[in-house]
Every structure is written in C-alpha cells, then in structure tokens.
Design a protein that fits this description.
The chain is an alpha+beta fold. The mean pLDDT is about 85. It has 2 domains: about 15-95, no CATH class; about 105-135. The protein has helices at about 90-95, 105-135, and strands spanning about 15-20, 25-35, 35-40, 50-60, 60-70, 90. It is elongated. Strand 1 (about 15-20) and strand 2 (about 25-35) form a beta hairpin. About 25% of the residues lie in helices and about 25% in strands. The chain is built from 2 helices and 6 strands; from the N terminus they run E-E-E-E-E-E-H-H. The chain has a 6-stranded antiparallel sheet with strand order 3-2-1-4-5-6.
Length: about 150
Amino acid sequence: MDLTPADAGADARWFQTMSWQGGGLAIAEMAEVGPGQYLSDKAIPVTGRGKALVRLHRGGEMMAAPVYFPADPEIGEPEIPAEARTVPMTGERELLLRETTDGGGLIAPVVYGLFVAVLVGWAAAFVLAARRLSAPRDPVRADVTV
C-alpha cells in the first residue's frame, strides 16, 4: 500500500488494517517497507460478509480508508470491492458506523431524560441522607436516684 504524503504514517499512534463482521476480528499492523510504502504484518480477509479498512491514528486524527465492504441493500450501500485504487482517508467513524441511521429522533431525548431523572434522584437521596446524619439529636433524658 502506498501512502501520500509519504510521511503521513510517521509517529502514528497506530497504523493498521482491520477486518470485522465476517466471522471474527482480524487486526494487522502496517510496517513501512519503503518511503510511503507499507505492508501489513499478516493477511486479513477481504471477502464475504466481513468489512475491511485501513486505520491511521496520529495526534488527534483518527482516519480510515475502506479496503472491502460488501453490498448492503438494507441501507442502500453498494459494495466497495477489494481492488487497487486511490482513496482519501476520512474520519473512521463514518466507515465504522455505516449502518447507523438518524432514527426517529425520539429515543435519545427519552434516554437522556431518564438518565437525568436517575441522577437527580440519586443526588436528592444523597442530600437527604446527609441531612439526617448531620441533624442534631434530642438529648437523652433520664432520672437518676442517688
């Protein structure tokens, strides 16, 4: 694989190929074999139902380029064949979460609302418990005959 610019993989936190969903997870590290030229340290599957991509993490950037993605008619995505081509690296999130949709838009506010309600309930319980523990107690009164 050729990387342009040639030093784009220098000082990367990770530079690897990854295949998943085709019967397991396979990760192979990329090793520089020449200026801007890299090979993976092992083969990864690029057929069937699995997906494969090249990932590069350097600094605050997490980029990826697709190697192979099967067609997914349920979401209207065509196959990305495993063939020689030049592709730009983009944010890996779009590739890793290709199947996600915007959804109905109602579930997120409901879940966040429940989370806030639980958090407020927990905080209120903590405050009540702290008040009870720190409240002054009535002194014990007793009569003593001597």
